[in-house]
Amino acid sequence: MFLDATFVLIKIKNMAVQKLKNVAGITIPDSKIATEATELLLEHGTEFIYNHSLRVFLFSSLNGKRQNMKYDEELLYVSSVFHDLGLVPHYSSPDLRFEVDGANAARDFLKSHGISNDRLQLVWDTIALHTTIGIAEHKENEVALMYSGVGLDVMGEGYEHLSEENRNEIIKAFPRNDFKKNIIPTFFEGFKHKTETTFGNIKADVCAFMIPNFERKNFCDCILHSPWSE
């Protein structure tokens, strides 16, 4: 967490950027729900996670615009804001995947605003599935779009569809801050106390990268050592 005066200034600066309402031709939602969600991200997150989350929203939205997809902008924004908050101490559980922690936090937040159950479930899925390769891209538009936005920011998937003008405008508003160097340790910091939650998902690669001689749980071993007698 950034607790010093520097981060306070960063928060003020970033809130000012949001007040511009438009980056790369995409309108940043400023409804009561969107604003309160942003305030939670600024309060409990970090500058690094904040910038990443806003870039994810913008990249997701640009992908939606390019593909003429209909989606709920406010729900996509809230999902982007919460998608990595499961990595921070305030929202992190002792035994759930960080994606689920973020999804649960967003659901609780939206439930307090009287959002309908179907929309709560949509946001939950959008966040919980944002790292689930081979599934998320086939779900509802909001789920698929945020998955694409995360993939673009983290791994450069679809980079060829991003114009240089849009790329520069987004990075100017929400800098990457040595993203390649910092994102893996940021992931790990969020679940190093529960590495078992990475079994069966791509975050096991993070543990293998960060922990010398990390031993992954193996699905085939689970089958062969099950309690069945045969």
Features:
single chain; 230 residues; mainly alpha; two-stranded antiparallel sheet; 11 helices; 59% helix; disordered N terminus; HD domain-containing protein; HD_domain
Describe this structure in words.
The chain has eleven helices and two strands; from the N terminus they run αββαααααααααα. It has helices at 5-19, 32-44, 47-66, 73-82, 98-111, 117-128, 141-155, 164-173, 179-191, 204-210, 219-224, and strands spanning 22-23, 26-27. A two-stranded antiparallel ribbon has the order 1-2. Strand 1 (22-23) and strand 2 (26-27) form a beta hairpin. 38% of the residues are buried.
- Which parts are unreliable, with pLDDT below 50 for 5 consecutive residues or more? 1-9
Overall geometry comes to: globular
Report the radius of gyration as a whole number of Å.
18 Å
Rounded mean pLDDT is: 93
The main β sheet shows up as:
2 strands, antiparallel
Give the topology string: H per helix, E per strand.
Answer: HEEHHHHHHHHHH
Distance from N terminus to C terminus (CA atoms, Å) equals: 52 Å
Number of helices: 11
InterPro entries: HD_domain
Domain HD: 50-137
Protein name: HD domain-containing protein
Pfam families: HD (PF01966)
